[in-house]
């Protein structure tokens, strides 16, 4: 089940959290070669080396800043040079810096769109060129967010970027139907990742053990685990997911549109302060 034996993949955000978990799960399920990309070179190389030592899979880290189109193109070029092909692309990297509709700066907006939409767009473009040229019936998986459906006021640009990513997923899936290249997206909910810990302590003043109390308030009494999301991504990358394409699937412990008594409302007014 969920075997991707002999396949070659490129995974973004491979320095930590979900991206690293996906790369490891791919390696454990038979991937022959993986390119991981991210901004932190030392950490990225350490993770790549560890996965290789534990699984025997060839893993190469390529330092890449997603808003930089040339660096994205270079990452795909490295994959083609080393593997000769690409069967799978996973856009798992993303940023969730805070900012509402009033206080989000142009710089933050551009950074958000560059990382969460622009980078994935051009990685898909370069990957698809290889797949079409070689007749590969590949799989592309984008990691979105349930926040794309509306989301929280304090991450306005983030919600906007993930909504755009969902449209990119569906549009590309439709465009590539006759090429038999599948494109799907997982809209994940609140996840206990390395990045989330940094966000909670940096932006919300949460204590180091914030996860313990946060978990108690959830229906399943825990947050999503990167490893369980990685398993779902491996399913979408494998032949077990069949002809599934153009799907944007919510992977969360909430049911959107449902509420106990009355529709939810914001906690308060947006302030200019």
Task: Walk me through what this model shows.
This protein is an alpha/beta fold. The chain is built from 8 helices and 7 strands. Strand 2, helix 2 and strand 3 form a beta-alpha-beta unit. Helix 1 crosses helix 8, helix 3 runs parallel beside helix 4 and helix 4 packs parallel to helix 5. The longest helix has 29 residues. The relative contact order is 0.14.
Question: Briefly, what is this?
Answer:
The protein has a seven-stranded parallel beta sheet with strand order 3-2-1-4-5-6-7, with helices on both faces. The protein contains eight helices and seven strands. The chain has helices at residues 17-28, 41-55, 69-83, 106-134, 156-175, 194-203, 210-216, 226-237, and strands at residues 8-12, 33-38, 58-63, 88-91, 139-145, 182-188, 248-251.
């Amino acid at each position: 089940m969920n075997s991707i034996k002999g396949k070659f993949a490129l995974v973004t955000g491979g320095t930590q959290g979900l991206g690293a978990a996906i790369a490891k799960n791919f390696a454990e399920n038979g991937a022959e070669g993986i390119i991981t990309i991210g901004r932190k070179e030392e950490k990225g190389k350490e993770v790549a080396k560890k996965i290789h030592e534990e699984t025997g899979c060839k893993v190469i880290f390529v330092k890449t800043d997603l808003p930089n189109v040339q660096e994205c193109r270079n990452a795909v070029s490295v994959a083609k040079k080393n593997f000769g092909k690409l069967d799978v692309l996973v856009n798992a990297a993303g940023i969730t810096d805070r900012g509402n509709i009033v206080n989000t700066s142009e710089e933050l907006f551009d950074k958000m769109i560059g990382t969460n939409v622009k980078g994935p767009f051009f990685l898909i473009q370069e990957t698809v060129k290889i797949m079409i040229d070689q007749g590969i019936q590949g799989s592309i998986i984008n990691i979105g967010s349930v926040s794309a459906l509306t989301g929280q006021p304090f991450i306005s640009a983030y919600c906007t970027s993930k909504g755009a990513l969902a449209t990119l997923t569906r549009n590309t899936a439709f465009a590539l139907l006759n090429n038999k290249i599948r494109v799907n997206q997982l809209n994940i909910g609140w996840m206990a990742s390395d990045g989330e810990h940094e966000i909670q302590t940096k932006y919300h003043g949460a204590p180091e053990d914030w996860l313990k109390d946060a978990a108690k308030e959830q229906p399943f009494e825990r947050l999503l685990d990167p490893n369980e999301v990685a398993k779902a991504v491996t399913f979408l990358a494998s032949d077990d997911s069949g002809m599934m394409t153009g799907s944007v699937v919510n992977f969360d412990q909430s049911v959107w549109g449902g509420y106990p008594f009355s529709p939810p409302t914001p906690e308060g007014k947006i302030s200019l302060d």
